[in-house]
Amino acid sequence: MKHVVSIKGLSKRFGRIQALNNVSFEVPSHSIFGLLGPNGAGKTTLFSVTADFLKADAGTVEVLDVDTRYISRLRGRLSILPQDAQFQRNVPILDQLVFFRLLAGRTKAQAQEEVIHSLELVGLQSYAKRRVGSLSHGMVKRLGIAQAFLGNPEVILLDEPTAGLDPAGARQIRDLVKQLQQHATIMVSSHNLDEVQELCDHVAILDHGNMVLAGSVDEITRADREYNLCLSRPLQNSELKRLSSIDGVRSIKMLSHPGADQGKGSAEYLVTLDLSADHVDQDAVIAAILRSVLDMGVTPRKFAEGRSLETHFLQVTGGQSDQDAILDSAE
Q: In this predicted model, what pLDDT tens digit does every residue of 256-270 receive, in sequence order?
């Protein structure tokens, strides 16, 4: 697999604060790569070093086989959208973006063509002559992505692209990023774990400047995955044993459904699936569980993944997930 970003031994200190500490990972070509971590983990610092806004104390960053200390060699090939990208509120969108392309050495005709293409990608072509001040917050976010995509860069860095958006606006940005994946490799920094799990195919997790986990989302979440099986009625011990006997099921824990009436409400069962090499066909295991439940005359109300990227994140950063808290209180 070809890697277009290679980070090796990257360290950066601000006074007493070690923002990055010997961080190393690689970003596969045409992936959506999530850079995860709580506030202060070093995500923005890493992006800033990658874009050569900051100089590293040690280590290297290569983008498209170019050391970013020679960032001019990546002109037009690498783009970044800072979290708080600013635009002139009273200047028309088209004029602002065209000006940016003129600064990059384009002719006016070339600049206008590139800007219109980028605005079409983010669905803002009909707003080209409007002033930025007339746009909603979500539209300004889309405008920022249009700016980052100007010139068709091969690698795009998006720092917290959905921060401050409502769920509908965040969904639009995620859908847009997925569309752009066919044109470029995209790195997205975020602390929204559910969002990253949905959007990204690879991740690196930072904690206090240290890289604690990196790999494909599928590999990380399949390493030890759990499911919450919410049923229309509690199961008898014999029925639980029947589910436990299904090849691939490692254990079953029965919990009361949060908020349910203990006498009449549904019950929740946490089913841990064995994902060793002998049980790689997860869909077959899930299908067997659901068939058994239906044969028992029980209606499955919900079958959702419980051991998510969030759980792994909290484990490697020393936190505790909501599900683990429920288990601790029940045992």
A: 544 444 444 444 565
Report yes or no: 155 and 4 within 8 Å, Cβ to Cβ: yes
295: burial class by Cβ within 10 Å (0-12, 13-18, 19+)? Answer: exposed
Give pLDDT tens digits for 193-231.
778 888 999 999 998 899 988 888 877 776 555 666 777
pLDDT (average), residues 166-187: 87
| DSSP-based three-state secondary structure for 40 | coil
What ranges in 14-125 are assigned the alpha helix state H? 43-50, 93-103, 108-121
**pLDDT mean across residues, the chain:** 82
Any idea what DSSP says for residue 278?
G
Specify the DSSP class assigned to residue 123.
T
Q: Which residues of 181-198 are buried (b: 16+ CB within 10 A; e: fewer)?
A: eeebbbbbbbbbbebbbe
In this structure, what is the dihedral angle of CA atoms 95, 99, 105, 106, given to the nearest 10 degrees?
A: -10
Q: Domains in the chain, start-ordered, CATH in brackets? A: 3-216 (3.40.50.300), 225-306 (3.30.70.1340)
β pairing state of 185-190 and 17-28: unpaired
pLDDT (0 to 100) of residue 51: 92
The closest of 141, 160, 119, 125 to 34, measured between CA atoms, is 160
